[in-house]
Amino acid sequence: MTNYSNDFLHKCGLEECPTGEFEGCCFYCPMKDGCAKACDKRPNECKDAVPTGECVNLQILNRDYEVVIGQITNVVTQKKRLEEKEKSLKDKLKEAMEKHAVKSLDNDLVRITYVAATTATGIDSKVLKSKYPDIAAKCSKTSNKSAYIKIEVK
After folding, report:
1. All residues at 6 or more sequence positions from 39 whose CB lies less than 8 Å from its CB, including other chains
2. Interatomic CA distance for residues 50 and 34, integer angstroms
3. What stretches of the chain adopt beta strand conformation (E)?
4. DSSP state letters, 13-26
């Protein structure tokens, strides 16, 4: 499994950046257009591209966990389809409950409760922070969040 979206994690093996301001492949340098020595080859097409440590780690991860990555991709895709199906079925059931004025349904399999539309009032933290930064600071709390991974199936 090759991941070309991570090819920016390469350096040129021939020479350092002529301006000394970019540590990577010329192809991704923001000053590339004005540079006489800039290379137009993508790192995956260039024989002189050298992977950085992070790129090597990504290649190892891709190789060693290819099966797991494939499985999680399938699970995420299936989950998305099931969530879409669930939403569609809930919408149909909500419509039927409204039509027949049923507030709840309880049987051996499931308990379903109709919850009517309501309004909610909240605080716009962006406005609070800009207009009343002292109050926002006094009312803010810090909480720890566990590390996690985010998966986006393309």
Report:
1. 12, 25, 26, 27, 46
2. 23
3. 10-12, 49-51, 104-106, 111-113
4. SS---TTS---S-G
Using CA atoms, how far apart are residues 132 and 3, in angstroms rounded to an integer? 47
Residue with tokens 């590339």: 32
Integer-rounded Cα Rg, in Å, for the chain is 27
In the block, tokens 């002529």 appear at 18
In this predicted model, what pLDDT tens digit does every residue of 70-92 receive, in sequence order? 899 999 999 999 999 999 999 99
Contact, 29 vs 22, CB < 8 A?
A: yes
pTM for the whole structure: 0.55
pLDDT, tens digit, 9 for 90 and up, residues 33-61 = 888 777 777 777 777 776 666 666 666 77
Structure tokens at 113: 């409760």
